[in-house]
Amino acid sequence: MQTNVKGRTTIRTAAMCFLASALFELLDLTSPVPLLGGMRSGLAAMGYHLIFTGLFLGMGIGLWTGKPWGYGMVMAGTAVYSIDKAQMLLASQTFYEFILQQFTSPSTREIFSVVPKELALQVMTAAYLVVVMCWWGFAFYIHRRRSYFEQAAG
Q1: According to the model, what pLDDT value does residue 59 have?
Q2: Residues 92, 121 contacting (CB under 8 angstroms)
Q3: What does pTM read for this prediction?
Q4: Which end of the chain is flanked by fewer CB atoms within 10 Å, N or C?
């Protein structure tokens, strides 16, 4: 008989989201990425996407199974994701190019071109900072529910 661990449904839902993220990284394998102050493509982009595929896959499996290493994987993934977003936000021109790349339809690009560049950068920077804060919130939640990983091991 299995005991019901507090937070199991939330953690398993997050696991499914990380597994889906791994799949999406694979689908974007050749997409250029903002990396070290420039937009990178080719092998650099593929390596970037493969690293994040592995990271998301590891986090998803670790969260789903509740193995003790899953806790460390979430913390490591949060650190890597945070560093990645910090390096992206520090290169404002590259970040702006990345934002423009996300808007592929001509009508969306046209609307975006009306917005002053500085305002667009401020709004998108704020949005990315909120996303990073959400990652840290999730990491804190996992820390609070670390017994999930201990009970799965026992």
Answers
A1: 97
A2: yes
A3: 0.85
A4: N
